[in-house]
């Protein structure tokens, strides 16, 4: 079965290059219903996308630019924003112009319909899939889960350690792994924190007596929460002139698995602008039925149960 990927994953693959190396190869792709990718060069005044196939030019008519354009449920910005970026499509035919040049007629909508039918409609909660961040909002990140079809990753599902904005974890264009949180009527909601490791897996990277780097996440009257990793934060004693978002050097005073606590002492803090790096994943499988964050001997259990039955 054909595998579906976020838009942009195919364009530099040997398979895509082979399928666009000649007009006859593009014709074969048309016959076989093969999804291809090319770079959108221009969005004309009628909002048709002109695409570079390498061996020839292609055109995606406006109504074929995305799911929902024809019905009026998707705005034209979904087409305009693809200029100078890879687009996926099916080749639906060819048009010979008066000067003898041949233009391939393409449909991004048809590629998305195929992806929706054969891939996205079969996803169930707990499935782990590849995604690519498309844009960031205060409430979460949007990610392409196949052929330019976008799903929401809410901010509270990005990591166990709380953040103020998704830009603290992701950049637009970053490739990530996600887990399906819910799938109802092909409307997908994603999660991410379950792939970043349990409390035990994260705390195993640290030892009492070490001084390590962290990020101040919250300053409370009773202490200061410092992130040691995206799925692990410790509590430091109060200290003056410490603010959320600062980098910190912290001494690990003690690690208490039963209480799921890491006690810290802040050595120093400083302002520093950092760029998010690719997440480190502890789970490498394709499906999660249940994720238990808390250690076995913890006083309370923190877990995510995924509904493994499709709606």
Describe the structure.
The chain is mostly beta strands and 311 residues long. It has helices at residues 14-19, 23-32, 77-80, 108-118, 199-203, and strands at 36-43, 49-52, 57-60, 86-96, 102-107, 128-137, 140-146, 149-154, 175-184, 187-191, 211-220, 223-229, 232-236, 247-256, 261-270, 290-292, 303-305. Strand 1 and strand 2 (49-52) form a beta hairpin. The protein has three domains: 14-118, Nucleic acid-binding proteins (OB fold (Dihydrolipoamide Acetyltransferase, E2P)); 123-195, Nucleic acid-binding proteins (OB fold (Dihydrolipoamide Acetyltransferase, E2P), Beta Barrel); 199-270, Nucleic acid-binding proteins (OB fold (Dihydrolipoamide Acetyltransferase, E2P)). The chain has five helices and 17 strands. The model has no long low-confidence stretch (mean pLDDT 94).
- Sheet with most strands: strand arrangement: 1-2-3-5-4
How many domains in all?
3
Taken in chain order, the helices and strands follow as HHEEEHEEHEEEEEHEEEEEEE
Q: Which sheet architecture does the biggest sheet show?
A: 5 strands, mixed, barrel
| CATH fold topology of the largest domain | OB fold (Dihydrolipoamide Acetyltransferase, E2P)
The poorly predicted ranges are none
How many strands?
17
Q: What is the beta-strand fraction? A: 35-45%
Helix content: 10-25%
Tell me the span between the first and last alpha carbons.
Answer: 23 Å
What sort of overall outline do the alpha carbons produce when their principal axes are compared? Answer: elongated
Structural class: mainly beta
Overall mean pLDDT stands at 94
């Amino acid at each position: 079965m054909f595998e579906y990927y976020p838009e942009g994953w195919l364009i530099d693959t040997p398979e895509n290059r082979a399928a666009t190396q000649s007009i006859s190869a593009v014709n074969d792709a048309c016959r076989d219903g093969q999804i291809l990718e090319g770079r959108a060069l221009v969005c004309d005044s009628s909002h048709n996308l002109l695409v570079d196939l390498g061996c020839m030019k292609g055109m995606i008519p406006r109504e074929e630019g995305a799911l929902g354009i024809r019905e009026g449920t998707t705005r034209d910005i979904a087409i305009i924003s693809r200029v100078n970026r890879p687009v996926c499509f099916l080749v639906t035919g060819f048009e010979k112009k008066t000067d003898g040049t041949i233009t391939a007629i393409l449909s991004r909508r048809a590629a998305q319909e195929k992806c929706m039918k054969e891939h996205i409609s079969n996803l169930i909660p707990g499935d782990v899939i590849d995604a690519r961040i498309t844009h960031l909002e205060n409430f979460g990140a949007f990610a392409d889960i196949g052929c330019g079809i976008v799903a929401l990753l809410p901010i509270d599902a990005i990591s166990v350690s709380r953040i103020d904005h998704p830009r603290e974890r992701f950049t637009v264009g970053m490739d990530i792994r996600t887990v399906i949180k819910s799938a109802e009527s092909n409307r997908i909601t994603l999660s991410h924190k379950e792939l970043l490791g349990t409390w035990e897996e994260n705390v195993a990277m640290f030892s009492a007596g070490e001084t390590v780097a962290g990020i101040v996440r919250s300053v409370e009257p009773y202490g200061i929460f410092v992130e040691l990793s995206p799925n692990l934060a410790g509590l430091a004693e109060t200290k003056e002139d410490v603010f959320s978002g600062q980098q910190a050097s912290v001494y690990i005073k003690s690690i208490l698995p039963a209480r799921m606590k890491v006690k810290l002492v802040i050595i120093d803090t400083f302002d520093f602008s950092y760029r998010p790096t690719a997440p480190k994943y502890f789970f490498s499988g394709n499906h999660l039925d249940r994720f238990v964050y808390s250690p076995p001997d913890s006083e309370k259990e923190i877990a995510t149960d995924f509904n493994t039955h499709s709606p």
